[in-house]
Amino acid sequence: MDLVVVSHCAGDHFGQTLEILANSDTTKLLGDHSTLCLAERAGYGGTWDPRMELTTSGATYVQGDFTIHAVDARHIAFKHFPDGSYMTGEPLCYIIRVKDGPTCFFGGDTSLTYDMKLWGELFRPDVAFLGIGGVDLQGRSLDEMDPPAAAICAEMLGVKTVIPMHYRTQEYLEQFQQYLAVRCPECRCLAVKAGESVTL
């Protein structure tokens, strides 16, 4: 693996990053300052380590056939540590252009913002990875972008395909499919199961 791209430092997004980096001496990590600081706390060299690639909203990074534009995510990024300290960061979305392939929007944990219409005009994405739900917060649902908002997002981006993510139940998926059929009828919903691969 050449590159790990992380939207923000929350545990469910940083995920297995350290394990992936440990499997290769050449794999790089692209993320905001807090994401790279998490790697530094684990023994990597921080922002000036040649394997650590710092990005921020508005920046562009090129890796082989991939051009990765970082844009704002409307969210919060934080990480608590056992010693009581915590870290905050800059949550990001990414527009990933593949040479001779699709342009993909990865929404991370963003909520709906009118910027998405501008990104649709600027980058013309074909595929969007969109959160359509959220997380269970001690019995309370914390949905950054619910199914109706996600359908509006797809419409504003102008994508042809949406891969829904970050949802807990089949009900979320069914609601999203219903709203998408109304707001963006020419757009298909491609629900991918855990461990499944698809060709875009």
Automatic annotation (TrEMBL):
Keywords, in A-Z order: Hydrolase
Protein's name according to its UniProt entry: Metal-dependent hydrolase
Organism ancestry: Bacteria, Bacillati, Bacillota, Clostridia, Eubacteriales
GO molecular function, one term: hydrolase activity
Organism: Flavonifractor plautii
Domain Metallo-beta-lactamase stretches: 2-167
Stretches of the chain forming a coiled coil according to its record: none
Keyword presence, RNA-binding: no
